[in-house]
Amino acid sequence: MRSEAERLTSAEGEIRNLLQGFEQTFLRMSESLEALPKASGDLVHQARRLIDLAIGCVEGENLLDQSLEFIQQQLNFLGDARRRTEGLVTQLTQASEEIARILECEAELQRTIRPLAFLQIYFRIEASTLDTGTQQMFLSLVEEIHRLNNEVKEMFAAKFAQLRGIRQTLLRLIDLLTTTARREGIHLASKTAELEALLARLKRDVQTRAERDLVTTKLSRTIEKEVGDLVISLQSQDILSQKLNHVITALSSLAKNLAPGPDSAAPTGAPQWEPLAIVEPVLRVQVAQLAQVQQEFETAHTRLSGSIQAVVEGARRTGDLCIKMPEFEVLTVSPGGLIQTLLDANEDLRGMLKSSLSAAHEIHTAVQPIGGLASNVTSTIRELSANIRLIALNSQIQAALSPDGRGLEVLAARTAGIAIETASVSQRLAEELDRTTQGLGVLVANLGESTQQGEAFFQSIQDQGARHDAELHQYRDTTFQQLALAHDSSVKIVDISQAIQAALAEEDRVPARIQTIATRLDQVAASCQATLATHAPESTARAEEMLRALSSHYTMRSEWAVHEAAARGLTPGKPSSPAPTADAPVEAPLAASPAAVAATATATETPSATAPEAKTEFGDNVDLF
Predict the structure, then answer these.
(1) Of 191, 377, 385, 569, which residue is most buried, by most CB within 10 angstroms?
(2) What is the pLDDT of residues 19-75, one digit of tens each?
(3) Which of 609, 605, 598 is nearest to 619 (CA)?
(4) Does residue 47 contact residue 39 with C-beta atoms inside 8 Å?
């Protein structure tokens, strides 16, 4: 019996070592699990935050939508400016054509006043035969005609040159506006296409965001469930530890019964073989308990491994739903990135606005004096027409007063005819110039008003643009910060998971160790049974008493179920009896193997009379008290 006691003590020591490993593994995994829920929760939160950032949501507002609206505002202004430019080109073209028609009348006006050069000669000839007083009067008229002729030549040379200069200015402005409008039209079309592409991208991103949100929500629930399962599965370590402690208690008690000497627990005067009679029934129950522990350990180990894999996979998929750094680089800092495109668009549009404003200033500065010049030409032509009329009238009066002025009367009539023709041409030119001048005046006023509006809009855009650019840069910085946080959370989850997996890997040999211990206990039981084969014990009272004493330590229904099945030697499919009581002794025929007994106990799990029913995450592994 000493040998059996030593073997039982050795098995007890191995189970204690196993328990010590359990405790160390439990502590390591507990420390890791404490950080896992927060890390997984952080990752889910950061994933959702990045999904929001991907479509521009910042503090409840959509920054990208605001930026696109800001760009659209500038595009609209430039589009209106382009249409105004096209209208201005039309007006300037009309003014240029009108001036061209006026310049065509220059030759006609010159033709009407050309006879004035000959009339002064004829007046000198006709007046040469008159008396000195009359001759002097006509010579003064001749001088007036000569002065007027020179004045007309100089005026037409200068004033029509001014008109030609005005027309050249208008043509230059038309060319400038046409070139500017064409260039801005190309840029405007390009920016409009970019804006449409950005809007299409945002529309797709919003749809993707909704899909990602849905998947992220499901994944977050999965991760939370698996983390909860991890905690529950880890608590199974404590359950298994309690069961192993109960086995240790049983083995220790058996070893004391088998050990000879003063420390033996066997009754005084009992036959030498009697302690062996209790070994086989008790060990049969303990081996069944170990088989149950082995089975539950494998189940818990599988569940822990599955849960940690599920958490890692959920974290990976959540991370995939996040916008990864390469993807955000495309969205932000790359040449074709969304943020960079917005920043470039703002800068380009401000440049276009500045260029448009500069062109408007140049046009307004060039056009502003034109109205005055054209008006000056009109007043000069009218003054010329009035002077010719006065000379003609004066010549007619002088000819009428002269007693021998028939020739002078003819010259005076001719002068009056020239005056009438010149007045007609001058009136027509003046009217056309008046219309042109009026149109140019309206054009200059509109340009001035448009330029002022452009300056005010540009200043507003400058202020808003600086704010929008700052917000876009801040958005990009925030995005990178969230990316770093999401990356850190992912790394943390992987580190925690690897630590738990490493701890689980150390327990891979636990089932084999339990099986080895159970095999040794089976061998001890077989040895005791062989020794008892030559004896016929009168009763099994001591075995029954010891089994009842050991069962009083049970704290879980599953232990009762295994105990009942093992003590009664049930085979698979045979229902178990009520739990043992003081009034209902247990018979323990040697009918079934420990593994079959454990399987039967797990399969039947019939509630015992002593063990109350309770349904929890652990099934029958619940405390009885």
Answers:
(1) 377
(2) 888 788 888 888 887 887 788 788 778 777 877 777 777 877 888 788 888 888 888
(3) 605
(4) no
pLDDT band (50, 70, 90) for residue 236: confident
Q: Which residue has the tokens 């905690």?
A: 231
Q: State the DSSP string of 217-276.
A: HHHHHHHHHHHHHHHHHHHHHHHHHHHHHHHHHHHHHHHHHHS-STT--SPTT--TTHHH
Question: Strand, coil or helix: what is 61?
Answer: strand
In 91-245, which ranges are E strands? none
Query: What is the helix, strand, coil percentage profile of the chain, to 5?
Result: 85, 0, 15
Q: Looking at this protein, which amino acid is placed at residue 251?
A: L
Q: Take residue 275 and report the two structure tokens written for it.
A: 């302690």
Report the alpha-carbon distance of residue 451 to residue 621 in Å, rounded.
86
Nearest-angstrom CA–CA distance, 113 and 424: 12
Q: Which of 156, 159, 148, 163 is nearest to 419 (CA)?
A: 148
| pLDDT for residue 485 is more than 70 | yes
pTM over 0.70: no
414 Cβ neighbours under 8 A, 6+ residues apart: 115, 119
CA distances from 216 to 209, 213, 220 (A): 10, 5, 6
The pLDDT assigned to 216 comes to 67
Both tokens assigned to 30: 């507990």
The helix/strand/coil state of 623 is strand
CB 455 within 8 A of CB 385: no
Q: What is the pLDDT of residues 180-233, one digit of tens each?
A: 888 878 888 887 887 788 777 767 766 666 666 667 667 777 777 777 777 777
Q: Which DSSP letter does residue 268 get? A: T
| DSSP type of residue 130 | S
What distance lies between CA 285 and its chain's CA centroid? 63
Contact present, 331 and 323 (Cβ < 8 Å): yes
- Token duo for residue 122: 């004829």
Predicted confidence (pLDDT) at residue 344 exceeds the cutoff of 50: yes
Rounded to whole angstroms, the Cα distance separating 568 from 584 reads 12
CB neighbours of 59 closer than 8 A, spacing ≥ 6? none
- Alpha helices in 402-539, H assignment, sequence order: 406-505, 510-532
